[in-house]
Amino acid sequence: MTKLDCNVVNCSYNADNCCRRTDIQVEGTQAKTSSETCCGSFAPKGCGCQSCHTTDVKKDTTVSCEACGCKFNEDHACHAGHIGISGGHADSSRETECGSFVCSC
User: Fold this and answer.
1) In this structure, what DSSP letter does residue 51 have?
2) What whole-number distance in Å separates Cα of residue 16 and Cα of residue 100?
3) I want to staple 42 with a disulfide (CB 3.0 to 4.6 A). Which of 2, 49, 89, 93 is the partner?
4) Do 64 and 24 contact (CB within 8 A), yes or no?
């Protein structure tokens, strides 16, 4: 599992810069920079999803990753020891990004 910090305060899963999900999906199949990635698991506050309201906050998270050009991606899974999802006050997943993306090109 990867240590995850998330500053996307408008995401329903965010609690004190941690994620309530046990797994997330990073998107960006053709990404060459972190700004070309996003958190596909983003759910805006008030979306009504039941799983958003659990009280468990996790630092250890399984990260599925479509960013094949990232040096931490091995078989569509992130193997970085720590990642940060950024996006502050994002209103959609496209306004988020994996701040730990490092291009392997």
Assistant:
1) G
2) 19
3) 93
4) yes
Helix (H, G, I), strand (E, B) or coil at 94: helix
Furthest C-alpha separation in the chain: 40
Residue carrying structure tokens 């596909």: 40
pTM of the model: 0.87
Q: What is the pLDDT of residues 67-93, one digit of tens each?
A: 999 999 999 999 999 999 999 889 999
41-60 burial, b if ≥16 CB within 10 A, otherwise e? Answer: bbbbeeeeeeebeeeeebee
Closest CA to 69 of 27, 29, 24: 29
Residues ≥6 apart with Cβ < 8 Å to 94 = 38
Place of tokens 């020891």: 81
Between the alpha carbon of residue 103 and those of residues 26, 27, 32, 35, 69, the distances in Å are 14, 14, 6, 11, 6
Cα–Cα dist 48/3, whole Å: 27
Q: What is the CA radius of gyration of the chain?
A: 13
